[in-house]
């Protein structure tokens, strides 16, 4: 990782103002820890690792281990269809909604568990995704009732 772990400690302030504090000002007041910087770093790391995971899955599934993924695979076409479906239902916009990365990670899960096969077309993969989406116990209610 390109960010030292010590920078992510909650008591660490990595934000610096434009001006240097004078000796009369307390450095505690100007350099209090903020969650915004740490959150921004976490999002950057998450985006980087997610991109690597998705690229590796596409390369290994469709082209073998040393190939570069192209945006014409069934994975990309399926992702595009799911994005359109989610946009039509308002699931990609607004607070607490899905992102393209979230949907891509669900697709990666389905490819890695071989629920979606590499020979499936984009429509078949979309149908499998919808089946998984509808049958998954997202709230964990089934586990609570069987216990």
UniProtKB/TrEMBL annotation:
One GO MF term: RNA binding
Primary location group: nucleus
Subcellular localization, as worded in the UniProt entry: Nucleus, Nucleolus
Keywords: Nucleus, RNA-binding
UniProt source species: Skeletonema marinoi
Record keyword Ion transport present: no
One Gene Ontology term, aspect cellular component: CURI complex
PANTHER family attached to this UniProt entry: NUCLEOLAR PROTEIN 6, NUCLEOLAR RNA-ASSOCIATED PROTEIN
The protein's name: Polynucleotide adenylyltransferase
InterPro entries, per database record: NOL6/Upt22
């Amino acid at each position: 990782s390109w960010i030292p772990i010590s920078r992510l400690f909650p008591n660490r302030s990595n934000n610096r103002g434009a001006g240097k504090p004078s000796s009369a000002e307390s450095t505690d007041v100007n350099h209090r820890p903020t969650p915004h910087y740490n959150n921004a770093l976490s999002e950057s790391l998450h985006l980087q690792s997610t991109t690597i995971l998705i690229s590796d899955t596409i390369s290994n599934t469709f082209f073998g281990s040393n190939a570069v993924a192209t945006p014409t695979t069934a994975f990309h076409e399926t992702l595009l269809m799911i994005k359109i479906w989610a946009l039509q239902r308002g699931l990609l916009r607004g607070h607490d909604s899905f992102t393209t990365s979230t949907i891509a990670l669900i697709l990666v899960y389905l490819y890695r568990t071989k629920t979606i096969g590499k020979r499936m077309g984009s429509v078949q993969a979309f149908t499998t995704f919808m089946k998984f989406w509808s049958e998954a116990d997202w709230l964990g209610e089934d586990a609570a009732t069987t216990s």
